[in-house]
């Protein structure tokens, strides 16, 4: 597989993050002995698996650095935004108010990112996201872009959408697509803008639907799909909806392909779908590669020792890379928010797979992992080395 492409907590709990005002050190103060980086993403709530799968990459990266006994150590602050834009809008100001935080590893979700931008732009707080993939976040023409503070180390959905449409229909002679989105800032554009054009070229779109997040009853959607005679269902949304959706489809007699983007590609998906038998064959996409395939046996053993995780989850690899963007700048003596922003905007960095990359003006990486496919087989999510 070609692994390169060229350019792409609850509100009440926020207080527990100890976001206190920190006085700015006077000019003659002793040099800083530590700085903080915040990881922002879902750590509780319905989408928790997405954040819990990737944060070990950040934890390990910081531990690796701190073990070198540097002059300036790094403390990781966890900012749980639950993959919810409303929660993120309340958490971000607290992160921004902590003057010790000089960078944000995040956000994990696109909706979190959009609603965090006002606070972080005002504070000049640089973001490097492991998985927020919506195209508009780095679109210079979009009013919702994160310029100049937002960056990501993952390819955007302009790459994932077409790949997902292709992967979903692989091996299907006459694809009849039924496209469903969850109305979220991630799922809706993924389906409507990025999957749809390719689906039209590869086959026929026999139906579409748009449902609210955390839908309890999927019977009407299942009925529409069965009536449409679709043989490929593509869902744009998160695992907590995709699992029950697949379960309802199988219970309703649908035997065709079910596929979804990286939002469903989590360690919780099979359980949410009702088990291995129901989830068997489900296809998924993501602009990532399994972190363990990039590590030596000794590195993987160290990762497990530090994090307690035996098999790294999706985007642990990009979280490690995003964290190391900041670590490189800190090693270079960039210990203030303005200095970090200049460094991230202008530096050259090394990804987990050893490739070098920079960020373009609006925050996309010049090199990122290509979108690949995963599928459920015998109760496990298996990486499929597909070149799209």
UniProtKB/TrEMBL annotation:
Residues 1-29 form the signal peptide. SUPFAM superfamilies: Periplasmic binding protein-like I (SSF53822). It comes from the Bacteria. It holds the Pfam family Peripla_BP_6. Coiled coil: none annotated. Keywords: Signal. InterPro entries: Leu-bd, Peripla_BP_I. Residues 34-372 form the Leucine-binding protein domain. Belongs to the leucine-binding protein family. This is Branched-chain amino acid transport system substrate-binding protein. It comes from Candidatus Planktophila versatilis.
């Amino acid at each position: 597989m070609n692994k390169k492409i060229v350019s792409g907590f609850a509100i009440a709990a926020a207080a527990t993050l100890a976001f206190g005002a920190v006085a700015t050190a006077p000019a003659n103060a002793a040099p800083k002995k530590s700085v903080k980086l915040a990881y922002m993403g879902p750590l509780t709530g319905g989408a928790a698996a997405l954040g819990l799968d990737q944060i070990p990459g950040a934890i390990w990266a910081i531990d690796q650095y701190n073990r070198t006994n540097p002059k300036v150590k790094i403390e990781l602050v966890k900012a749980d935004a639950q993959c919810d834009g409303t929660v993120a809008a309340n958490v971000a100001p607290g992160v921004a108010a902590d003057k010790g935080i000089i960078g944000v590893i995040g956000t994990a979700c696109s909706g979190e990112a959009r609603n965090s931008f006002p606070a972080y732009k005002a504070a000049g707080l640089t973001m490097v996201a492991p998985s927020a993939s919506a195209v508009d976040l780095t679109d210079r023409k979009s009013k919702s872009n994160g310029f100049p503070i937002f960056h990501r180390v993952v390819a955007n959905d302009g790459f994932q959408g077409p790949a997902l449409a292709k992967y979903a229909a692989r091996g299907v002679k006459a694809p009849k697509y039924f496209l469903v989105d969850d109305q979220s800032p991630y799922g809706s554009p993924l389906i409507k803008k990025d999957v749809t054009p390719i689906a039209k070229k590869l086959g026929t779109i026999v139906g579409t639907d748009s449902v609210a997040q955390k839908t309890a009853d999927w019977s009407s959607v299942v009925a529409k799909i069965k009536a449409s005679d679709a043989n490929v269902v593509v869902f744009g949304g998160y695992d907590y909806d995709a699992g029950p959706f697949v379960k309802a489809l199988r219970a309703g007699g649908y035997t065709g392909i079910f596929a979804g983007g990286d939002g469903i590609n989590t360690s919780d998906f099979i359980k949410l779908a009702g088990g291995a038998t129901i989830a068997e064959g489900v296809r998924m996409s993501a602009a990532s590669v399994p972190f363990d395939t990039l590590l030596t046996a000794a590195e993987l053993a160290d990762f497990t020792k530090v994090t307690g995780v035996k098999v790294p989850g999706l985007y642990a690899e990009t979280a490690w890379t995003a964290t190391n963007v900041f670590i490189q700048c800190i090693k270079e003596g960039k210990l203030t928010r303005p200095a970090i922003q200049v460094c991230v905007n202008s530096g050259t960095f090394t990804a987990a797979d050893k490739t070098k990359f920079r960020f373009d003006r609006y925050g996309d990486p010049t090199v990122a992992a290509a979108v690949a496919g995963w599928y459920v087989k015998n109760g496990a999510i298996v990486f499929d080395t597909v070149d799209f």
